[in-house]
C-alpha cells in the first residue's frame, strides 16, 4: 500500500491550539498510517452553526469505514439530568451531553450516506458502510466514568480514555475492506461536494460513437476532489500559501471551496476573493453559494463577510480598485483612460499606492487571489496592506497558471510581489519554506498525472 494513502486534513486545528487535540491528531496519524483514507479535524459541519456540535475527528478508510471521535479535553466532574436532557459538568460549566451531540451527528452522517443508492440497502434498511462513534476523555479514566453511571458501551457512542483508545479503535477493522468506489462516494457525500453531481438517470448503455457522445459521457462522471485538491480546499493555512498549476487543474474550484468552507467554519472572518477575468464572477459566486448553502442551510453573506471582487471593477459590479477609491474619495480611472498603456492594472494600482498607500488599513482575515499570473506586484502590495496580520503572518493564498502569464515567463517570488518597507521585503521568500502544523504545505503544484494531482 502506498505510504501516502492515508491523509490528514487539519483544518483549523493549529489556529485553535488545543494541546490534547494536537497530541491525539499525531497519535491517530501513526495509528492509521497503513490505512487507505483520511483523518480530518472538525469536518464536516453537516449544516451545524455551532462547531462544538461537530466531533473533533472523523476517520474514513477502506479498512474501518467511518469512525467519529469526539475529544473532551477537560475533566468531567458531574452529570445531571434536566427536562429529560443530560448535562455534563466540564470544568466549571454544564454543557449538553457530548453523547447526545455525537448521536445526532451520527444520524446526520447516516442520512447523508443514504443519499447514494449504492451505499444503502433499502430492502434491509441498512447502511452498507459501518459507522462507529467514540468519545475520548483526556482527564478521566474509564473507572471515573462508571461512577457517574455513564454507560461505557451500548448507548450511542463508546466511551474511551487516553490510555486505551488506540486499541479500541484498531479493533474496528472490517472483515472485508470497502471498495475504492464506495470510499470515494462516502468522501464526496461527507465533504459536501456531492452537490456538484448530476442526478442519476436510467438510460440504456450504448458505446459512445460521436464526439458529442464522448462529451456527454465525460460530463456524467462523478465529481470528486482528488487528495491534493481536498487538502488545499479544506485546510486553512496559518499564513501565506502559493498554489501553482497548469490551466484547467481546478484551482478556481479549490479556492471557491476554501472560501465557502472558511466562511462556514469561521463566520467572523472577513474574506476577499480576488480575480482578473470578469466572466469568472458568476462561476465563483455559483460554486461558493452551492456548497455553502448546502452545508450552512442559508446563503453566504456576500455583503459583509465574503467579497468576490474583480481587481478593477466596472459599471455594473464593483472591484477592489474602485471600492478602495470610493473609500478614500478618489475618482477611479476607467479602462478608456488606460487603453494605450501596456499594463493598465499596474498604472492604476501604482497611482492608488502613491495617493493613499500609507492610509490603507487591514480589512480582511483571508485573501484568496485567483489568476495571480495576470496581476502586477502593485496589486499584491495593496493586498498585503489590506490583509490583517495574525501572529506576524498574513493569510494570503495566491494561485496562478504555470506558464500562462500574459506578461512574464517567470513568476515572481514573494519578496518581489508584496512590496517593501525601509528597503526590506514585506514578505521574504522564506515565508514559503517548509509547512504549517498538521502538514499544511506552503507551496503546492497542481498537475495531472494518470488522472490525479501530484505535489511537487
- Work out the count of structural domains: 2
Distance between the first and last residues' Cα: 21 Å
How would the global form be characterised?
elongated
* Second-tier CATH architecture of the largest domain: 3-Layer(aba) Sandwich
Strand percentage: 15-25%
CATH superfamily of the largest domain: P-loop containing nucleotide triphosphate hydrolases
Enumerate the spans where pLDDT stays under 50 for 5 or more consecutive residues: 198-203, 214-223, 449-456
Helix content: 25-40%
CATH topology of the largest domain: Rossmann fold
The major beta sheet can be summarized as: 6 strands, mixed
Question: How large, in whole angstroms, is the Cα Rg?
Answer: 24 Å
CATH class of the largest domain: Alpha Beta
Secondary-structure-based class equals: alpha/beta
Word description of this protein:
By secondary structure, the chain is α/β, with parallel strands linked by helices. It has 2 domains: 6-194, Trna Endonuclease, Chain: A, domain 1 (3-Layer(aba) Sandwich); 227-453, P-loop containing nucleotide triphosphate hydrolases (Rossmann fold, 3-Layer(aba) Sandwich). It is built from 15 helices and 25 strands. A 6-stranded mixed beta sheet has the order 1-2-3-4-10-11, with helices on both faces. A hairpin with a 2-residue loop joins strand 5 (76-82) and strand 6. Helix 8 (227-234) packs parallel to helix 9 (251-265), helix 9 runs parallel beside helix 10 and helix 13 (344-356) packs across helix 14. The longest helix is centred in the middle third of the chain and has 17 residues, at 280-296. The two termini are 21 Å apart. Mean pLDDT is 82; it is low at 198-203, 214-223 and 449-456.
Amino acid at each position: 500500500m502506498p505510504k501516502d494513502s492515508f491523509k490528514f486534513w487539519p483544518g483549523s486545528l493549529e489556529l485553535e491550539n488545543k494541546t490534547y487535540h494536537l497530541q491525539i491528531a499525531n497519535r491517530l496519524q501513526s495509528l492509521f498510517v497503513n490505512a487507505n483514507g483520511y483523518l480530518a479535524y472538525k469536518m464536516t459541519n453537516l449544516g451545524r452553526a455551532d462547531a462544538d456540535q461537530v466531533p473533533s475527528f472523523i476517520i474514513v478508510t477502506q479498512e474501518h469505514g467511518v469512525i467519529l471521535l469526539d475529544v473532551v479535553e477537560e475533566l468531567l466532574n458531574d452529570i445531571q439530568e434536566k427536562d429529560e436532557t443530560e448535562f455534563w459538568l466540564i470544568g466549571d460549566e454544564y454543557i449538553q451531553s457530548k453523547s447526545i451531540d455525537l448521536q445526532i451527528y451520527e444520524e446526520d452522517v447516516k442520512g447523508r450516506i443514504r443519499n447514494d443508492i449504492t451505499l444503502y440497502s433499502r430492502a434491509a434498511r441498512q447502511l452498507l458502510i459501518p459507522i462507529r462513534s467514540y468519545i475520548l476523555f483526556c482527564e478521566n479514566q474509564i473507572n471515573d466514568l462508571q461512577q457517574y453511571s455513564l454507560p461505557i458501551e451500548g448507548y450511542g457512542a463508546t466511551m474511551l480514555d487516553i490510555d486505551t483508545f488506540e486499541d479500541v479503535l484498531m479493533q474496528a477493522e472490517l472483515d472485508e475492506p470497502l471498495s475504492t468506489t464506495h470510499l470515494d462516494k462516502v468522501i464526496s457525500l461527507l465533504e459536501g461536494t456531492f452537490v456538484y453531481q448530476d442526478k442519476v438517470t436510467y438510460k440504456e448503455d450504448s458505446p459512445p460513437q460521436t464526439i458529442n457522445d464522448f462529451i456527454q459521457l465525460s460530463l456524467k462522471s462523478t465529481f470528486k476532489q482528488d487528495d491534493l485538491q481536498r487538502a488545499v480546499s479544506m485546510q486553512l493555512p496559518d499564513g501565506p500559501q502559493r498554489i501553482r498549476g497548469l490551466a484547467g487543474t481546478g484551482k478556481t474550484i479549490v479556492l471557491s471551496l476554501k472560501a465557502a468552507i472558511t466562511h462556514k467554519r469561521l463566520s467572523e472572518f472577513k474574506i476577499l476573493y480576488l480575480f482578473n477575468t470578469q466572466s469568472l464572477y458568476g462561476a465563483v459566486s455559483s460554486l461558493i453559494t452551492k456548497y455553502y448553502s448546502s452545508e450552512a442551510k442559508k446563503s453566504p453573506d456576500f455583503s459583509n463577510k465574503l467579497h468576490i471582487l474583480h481587481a478593477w471593477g466596472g459599471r455594473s459590479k464593483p472591484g477592489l480598485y474602485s471600492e478602495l477609491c470610493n473609500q478614500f474619495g478618489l475618482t477611479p480611472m476607467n479602462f478608456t483612460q488606460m487603453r494605450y498603456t501596456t499594463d493598465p492594472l499596474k498604472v492604476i494600482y501604482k497611482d492608488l499606492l502613491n495617493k493613499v498607500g500609507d492610509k490603507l488599513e487591514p480589512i480582511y482575515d483571508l485573501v484568496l487571489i485567483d489568476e495571480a499570473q495576470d496581476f502586477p506586484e502593485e496589486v499584491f502590495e495593496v493586498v498585503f496592506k489590506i490583509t490583517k496580520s495574525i501572529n506576524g503572518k498574513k493569510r494570503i493564498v495566491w494561485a496562478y497558471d504555470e506558464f500562462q502569464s500574459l506578461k512574464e515567463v517567470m513568476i515572481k517570488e514573494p519578496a518581489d510581489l508584496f512590496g517593501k518597507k525601509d528597503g526590506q521585503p514585506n514578505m521574504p521568500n522564506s515565508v514559503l519554506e517548509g509547512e504549517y502544523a498538521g502538514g499544511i504545505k506552503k507551496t503546492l503544484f497542481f498537475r495531472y498525472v494518470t488522472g490525479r494531482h501530484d505535489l511537487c
